[in-house]
Amino acid sequence: MEFFDEPGPLEGIRVVTLAPNVPGPVAAARLRDLGAHVTKVEAPEGDPLEAIAPRWYEALHRNCVVERLDLKTPAGREQLDVRLRDADVLLTSSRPSALARLGLAWEDVHERHPDLVLVAIVGELPPDEERPGHDLTYLATLGLLDPPGMPRTLLADLAGAERAAGVAAALLLRRARGLGASRAYVSLREAARPFGAPFEHGLTVPGGRLAGGFGPYRIYRSRDGWLALAALEPHFVRRLCEALRVADYDAGTLAAIFAERDGREWEAFAREHDLPLELIP
User: Fold this and answer.
1) Where in the sequence of the chain do the CATH 3.30.1540.10 domains occur?
2) What angle do CA 268, 274, 279 make, to 5 degrees?
3) Is residue 154 a contact partner of residue 105, using CB atoms and an 8 Å limit?
4) C-alpha dist (Å) from residue 187 to 41, 132, 138
5) CATH of domain 209-280
6) Residue 80's closest CA among 116, 50, 54?
7) How far apart are CA 213 and CA 199, in angstroms?
8) What Rg do the C-alpha atoms of the chain give, in angstroms?
9) Which pLDDT tens digit goes with each residue over 159-190?
10) What topology does CATH give the domain 14-197?
11) Is-contact 255 263, C-beta < 8 A?
12) Is this model's pTM higher than 0.85 or not?
């Protein structure tokens, strides 16, 4: 997390979010950490994230107001409108057709709340914003999966959340410059797309320079575990060779050396010689 002088840069900004699961709560938490006041409106049954990852849910909603409203009823929609009167940002992650059925299409929201900016998290950009999908399918389309293994993180969701928070700040700046309140779509698939570029350009393909093809940037086994060595720049390569007293830094040479000591010994060695090497838990 960044460090800001008090108050935060979004102090005084009020955010209302209707977005459950992962992207919405992560984006809202990002805005909260920047100083915004966040109100989360959940369906009567709550956010599925609370049931499947309660500790993460709690962390993401720390210092946020959480309310449950049934937006499928006139009374629920009226209560939401009351909250939107004083809000600066509305964050959603439903498909546009679902929002329209709740009276939350952009045209309707903008008419009732002309100073409110809207950030709509969707899977795909228009005209495909109604197409269903999730993190796994977006990564699949971008070559970011290695079947049958499942990804260790929700890359598209988290990248989209960061992008949504940034877009919200940009829309607020636009409004502050007198250009009016507007909306923006944030596509989870497009947010993940830049993460496929290293593979697309050969850096992380099998045997690529950052995928085991360069000895000083590779994973090695120590006597009791695994090490991540990232001596990528020439000065780190020179320092590594000098510290190990080798002239040849190919993977075979380094593998034989790292197998001779325990991981903690190599960790201490790295600190002593200012080398980017870490133990893998």
Assistant:
1) 209-280
2) 45
3) no
4) 22, 12, 10
5) 3.30.1540.10
6) 116
7) 13
8) 24
9) 999 999 999 999 999 999 999 999 999 999 99
10) Rossmann fold (3.40.50)
11) no
12) yes
